[in-house]
Structure formats: C-alpha cells, structure tokens
Specification:
The complex is a heterodimer of chains A (about 120) and B (about 290).
Chain A (H helix, E strand, L loop, with lengths): L2 H12 L2 H9 L1 H11 L20 H8 L3 H7 L3 H12 L7 H8 L14
Chain B lengths: L2 E9 L4 H6 L9 H16 L5 E6 L14 E4 L3 E4 L2 H7 L4 E4 L2 H13 L5 E3 L6 H10 L7 E6 L9 H16 L6 E8 L18 H13 L2 H7 L15 H11 L7 E6 L4 E7 L7
Parallel strand pairs in B: 1-8, 2-7, 2-8, 3-6
Antiparallel strand pairs in B: 1-10, 3-7, 4-5, 9-10
Helix pairs in contact in B: 4-6, 6-9
The chains are: A mainly alpha (about 120), B alpha/beta (about 290).
Keywords (chain B): Dioxygenase, Oxidoreductase
InterPro entries (chain B): Xdiol_dOase_suB
EC number (chain B): 1.13.11.8
C-alpha cells in the first residue's frame, strides 16, 4: 500500500518548482520533512482530516533519500513519475539526451515483465 | 444534427513545439521534414472547416491523480487553462487558454451516461500536452472551442482495449446526434510503441518497430477486428511500458468506424517513438 505514497511523493515534488530544487539539493531531509508534514494530507481537506496510517517502508524511504531510481523502479514506483522528476533534477548536468539514455542503461538488467506498478 | 467534418488521430510528441521553432545549431536535423509532414497533416483539418474540436487525450499525472482516478472524463468548462509548469520545464510548451463548448460537453455527458459509459466530468480541468500538442500541430491559432475527453492509459487498473473502441463508436454516434448546425472534428492522440522510465527508453527508434508497422496498418485500414485480436492489456507491455497509450488510437478507430480506410496516412520514424498521422472524412473528402 505504500507504493501509493512513493508515487505521491514523486508526483507532489515534480509539480512544484521549489520542491524540485529542494529535493535535488537535500534529498534525505526533504523526504523526511515531506513524510512528516505533507504525506498524509487528504484531498483539499484541513489538517484534521489527515490520514493516520500512510508511511513509507524503510526501503522506499531509503530509495527516495538516495535518489536511487533503479531501486524505485524495482519497488514499482510509476516509471513516468520517476523519469520526469529525475530529468528535472539532473538533465541540466548533462548533454542532450545523455541523462535520459544513462537512466535507461542503468535499468538494463530488468526484463519483462517489469515490476508491478499498480497501486 | 451536427456534421462530423473530420476524424483525426495522431501521436502527440511534446518535443515538436521546440523542434519546429528552434533555429541555428539548436534546430535538430529532422525538424524540417517533421514540419513538412505536420503542415500537410494540418491542412487535412483546415480543409474540413471545423467549428468545434472534440479532443481525446490522456492526462499525464498533471491534474488527475491516484486518489480519485477516472477512467473516462469529459471536460465541461467555459475555458481551459493549458499546460503545466513541468511541461514548460521539460518541453518548453507555452501557457495556453482554450475556449470550451459547454453545450456539446453536456450533450456528450448526458448521452454517454445513457449509453452505458459512466463518464466523470470536471468543471475545473486544466489540460496538458495530450490536448495542446494536437492544437499546436493542427490548429496553432487555437481559435476553436473544444470539448476535452480524457482516458486513463496510465494508472492501472485500465479499461480493456475493447472498451476504448466502444467509447469511440459511442462518441461518433453522440456527436452526430447533437442538435446543432456546427461542424465537429474529433481529434485524438495516443502512442505507438513507447517506453518511459524503463531500460528501452530514448532509443534510435520506438522500442518495437514491428509493432509500430502493424499498428499503422491496423489504423490506416480500419482493421479493428485484427487489432482487437492481437492487442490485450497484458500484451501492450511488450512493445514498451507506455504503449497502453495505443488504446487512444483504438478509440479513434472506433470513431472512424470498422473497415474505414483513412484518407490521409503518414508517419515519421523519430528517435524515441514513431510519429503517425491519420485523417478520415466521414462525409466525403473536402473539395
């Protein structure tokens, strides 16, 4: 059930330019802050309606805290979310498409069927 | 009753806007050919003289999220803001504002529900590149009112391929039953073989050229039967982990009709994915 929360982290960060920069510069601190302060907000509700049970597994928290996109793929994080956020953070450090191709190459040991992404 | 002026199906490559507007050293080597093909494709819509565009696409986790995911959603708003910060960031897409056609939205919702499709609706839909890319390629003036229809090709569990075909057939009948003198073009975008966030992404071609060739043939000839015989939710993983977007092409085959050959067929073998463009004229080729 926490695969949903991993996807929600990636989705939440990817749509916010300040969070993209914060996660790039300070991944572990951002993950811990987000899990404590943001993870359990529900829809458009006030804080009193927060979820009481959503949290990362240790593997998920570590994969997010270390920018480990290979581990996230293995855990079933939605690959579109991981890709688009990681392009936002790291493409700037590389030549055209260099980062995207390297991203794929690091996943070369995976074959079909890929890890389940259903939440 | 409304007239269906054209049925159009295409890919929606978000890099087209940047590639087509780039100059000098920034302009990729394939840009000129891509622009030529898009210009010819655009003419197929212009010649149809549409008044309204029904736009079938798929939200890419921009507005629709796993807390409340609709399978099929119809926009019903007077205006639609378009494109998101992360699309501007990655593709250089501009912010856009498109007019809505609320009467047709209401008609599609009422008739769609009565036809057995439990359509969701949104009065607050911000649309993304699946709708704006075909605007940029086919109607860059962005001057026609639209009805956006979003499908879920992204977040399992997905509807099965046959359901997409059935919805396309229903949309065709529903638009034709709209009590209006207006000319409606139905435009939908999907994918051929495509991999995103996986080991086969960003190759020199789409990840499965053999699938692409078969898919183009199915669409161009309206061979819904063979397409449905070969394509399942499970099989669509094989040509690439994002190939479920092909089901939006299948929806458009349903709109065009079984056995109906496309009047315009073109494709462009780009890196990453193959581009493909199809136009049908249900009421005859414009003079």
């Amino acid at each position: 059930m926490s695969r949903y929360l991993v996807d929600k982290f990636l989705y939440t960060v990817d749509r916010d330019p300040d969070l993209v920069e914060r996660y790039r510069a300070e991944p572990r601190g951002t993950v811990l802050w987000w899990e404590a302060e943001r993870a359990n907000s529900v829809l458009n509700c006030h804080g009193g309606e927060a979820s009481t049970w959503l949290r990362f597994t240790d593997d998920e928290r570590e994969a997010l805290a270390t920018h480990d996109h290979v581990a996230l793929f293995a855990l079933g994080a939605h690959p579109f979310l991981t890709l688009t956020l990681f392009i936002a953070m790291f493409e700037r450090d590389h030549g055209p498409l260099e980062y995207q191709k390297a991203f794929g190459a690091r996943l070369a040991h995976f074959s079909m069927p890929y890890p389940d992404i259903a939440t | 009753m409304a007239t269906i002026a054209a049925v159009i199906a295409s890919t929606h490559h978000p890099f087209y806007y940047r590639a087509s507007t780039a100059t000098g050293e920034d302009r990729p080597p394939f840009a000129d050919e891509w622009v030529r093909k898009i210009t010819a494709f655009r003419q197929t819509l212009t010649a149809a003289r549409p008044d309204v565009l029904v736009m079938v696409g798929s939200d890419h986790f921009h507005q629709l999220w796993l807390d409340n995911m609709p399978q099929f959603l119809v926009g019903k708003a007077p205006f639609y803001d378009a494109n998101w910060y992360n699309e501007e960031r990655e593709f250089g897409l501009p912010k856009m504002l498109l007019k809505g056609q609320e009467d047709l939205s209401a008609h599609i919702l009422r008739a769609g529900l009565d036809s057995g499709f439990d359509l969701a609706f949104s009065n607050e839909l911000r649309i993304d590149h699946s709708v704006t890319c075909p605007i940029i390629t086919l109607r860059p003036e962005a001057d026609l009112p639209i009805v956006p229809i979003y499908t879920n090709i992204f977040a399992p569990p997905l509807p099965r391929p046959k359901r997409f075909v059935q919805l396309g057939q229903a949309i065709r009948e529903i638009v034709e039953s709209w009590p209006s003198h207006l000319r409606v073009a139905i435009v939908g975008t999907g994918h051929l073989s495509l991999e995103l966030g996986g080991p086969r992404q960003f190759g020199p071609h789409g990840p499965d050229p053999e699938f692409d060739a078969k898919a183009v043939e199915w669409i161009a000839t309206g061979d819904i039967e063979r397409c449905l015989a070969e394509v399942t939710l499970d099989s669509l993983h094989s040509p690439g982990n994002a190939t479920h977007g092909f089901m939006d092409f299948m929806l458009m085959m349903g709109v065009a009709g079984a056995g109906r050959k496309a009047d315009h067929v073109d494709s462009l073998d780009l890196f990453h994915t193959m581009e493909a463009y199809f136009t049908w004229y249900p009421n005859g080729v414009p003079a």
